[in-house]
C-alpha cells in the first residue's frame, strides 16, 4: 500500500466495483506491465480478489473486513496532517460516500446514530446486532435481512468525520436498498453519493436530521 500506484488502484476499487487491469493501469498512471506486477502483489497479499471473464481479469477489494482494514489505515495516515487533508476533501465526499459497500461520511454517521437512538440495533463494543424493532423496520423498508439470521455489523472509523459509521452485511444491505430505490445516486465526484428527495424521506422516517 506504500506505493503510489498500488494506493491509486486500491482507492479506485474502494467504491465496491470490480475493474479490469487495463482500467486500473490507466487510473494509476502506469503501464499495463507495471500494473500487472502491482496487482499480483495486492492479490498475493489477499487485499484484492480476481476473476477471469473472457480475456479480461477483474479485480476488487477482497471482502468487507479488508475494506475496514484499509479505511483504518487511511484514518491513521490522516492524523499526520489532519487540517491539510480536511481542506483537500471535496464537500460531496464528506457529506455522503461509499466506503466499499456501505454508507460513510456525515450521512453514514447520522444513519448509525438513528439506528442506535431508535434501538433498531444494539452495540456491544465495536460489534452490533439487530433488535426485534430493527427487524420490523427492515421489513417496513424492504431491506433484505432474513429472519433468524443475525447479519454481521461492526463499527468502522470514518476518516473524514473522526467518529464511527456502520459497516458489515447489515450496513451493506441498507446501502443496496437506498441505491436500488434511487434514494442515493452516484455523484460526479468518485465514490460520492447524492441524496435525492426519496433519500430525505427515508431518513425522515428514521427520524434522522440530515446534516447538510
Would you give an account of this structure?
Helix 2 (21-28) crosses helix 3 (32-44). The chain has two domains: 4-62, Arc Repressor Mutant, subunit A (Orthogonal Bundle), CATH 1.10.10.10; 91-206, no CATH class. It contains ten helices and eleven strands. The protein has 212 residues and is of the alpha+beta class. The strands form four sheets. It has a four-stranded antiparallel beta sheet with strand order 6-7-8-9. It starts with a helix and ends in a 6-residue tail after the last helix. The chain has helices spanning 4-13, 21-28, 32-44, 64-78, 82-88, 91-95, 105-117, 132-141, 169-180, 197-206; strands at residues 19-20, 48-53, 56-61, 97-99, 102-104, 121-124, 127-130, 153-157, 164-167, 184-186, 193-195. It is globular, with a radius of gyration of 18 Å.
- Strand proportion, as a percent range, falls in 15-25%
Q: Report helical residue fraction.
A: 40-55%
CA gyration radius, whole angstroms:
18 Å
> Which structural class is indicated by helix and strand composition?
alpha+beta
Query: What is the CA-CA span between the terminal residues?
Result: 33 Å
- Order of adjacent strands in the largest pleated sheet: 6-7-8-9
H/E element order: HEHHEEHHHEEHEEHEEHEEH
Rounded mean pLDDT is 87
Low-confidence stretches: none
Biggest beta-sheet profile? 4 strands, antiparallel
Number of helices: 10
Domain HTH arsR-type: 1-81
InterPro entries: ArsR-like_HTH, HTH_ArsR_DNA-bd_dom, HTH_Metal-responsive_Reg, WH-like_DNA-bd_sf, WH_DNA-bd_sf
GO molecular function, one term: cadmium ion sensor activity
Pfam family, one: HTH_20
Amino acid at each position: 500500500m506504500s506505493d503510489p500506484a498500488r494506493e491509486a488502484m486500491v482507492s479506485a476499487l474502494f467504491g465496491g466495483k470490480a475493474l479490469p487491469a487495463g482500467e486500473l493501469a490507466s487510473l494509476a498512471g502506469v503501464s499495463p506491465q507495471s500494473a500487472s506486477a502491482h496487482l499480483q502483489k495486492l492479490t498475493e497479499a489477499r487485499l484484492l480478489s480476481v476473476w477471469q471473464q473472457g480475456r479480461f481479469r477483474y479485480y476488487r477489494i477482497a471482502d468487507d473486513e479488508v475494506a475496514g482494514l484499509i479505511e483504518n489505515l487511511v484514518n491513521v495516515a490522516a492524523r499526520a496532517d489532519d487540517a491539510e487533508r480536511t481542506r483537500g476533501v471535496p464537500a460531496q465526499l464528506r457529506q455522503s460516500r461509499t466506503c466499499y459497500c456501505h454508507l460513510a461520511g456525515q450521512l453514514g454517521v447520522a444513519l448509525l446514530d438513528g439506528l442506535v437512538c431508535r434501538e433498531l440495533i444494539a452495540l456491544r463494543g465495536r460489534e452490533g446486532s439487530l433488535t426485534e424493532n430493527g427487524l420490523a423496520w427492515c421489513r417496513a423498508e424492504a431491506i433484505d435481512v432474513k429472519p433468524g439470521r443475525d447479519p454481521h455489523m461492526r463499527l468502522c472509523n470514518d476518516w473524514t468525520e473522526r467518529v464511527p459509521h456502520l459497516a458489515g452485511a447489515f450496513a451493506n444491505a441498507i446501502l443496496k436498498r437506498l441505491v436500488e430505490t434511487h434514494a442515493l445516486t452516484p455523484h460526479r465526484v468518485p465514490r460520492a453519493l447524492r441524496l435525492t428527495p426519496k433519500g430525505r424521506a427515508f431518513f425522515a422516517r428514521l427520524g434522522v436530521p440530515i446534516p447538510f
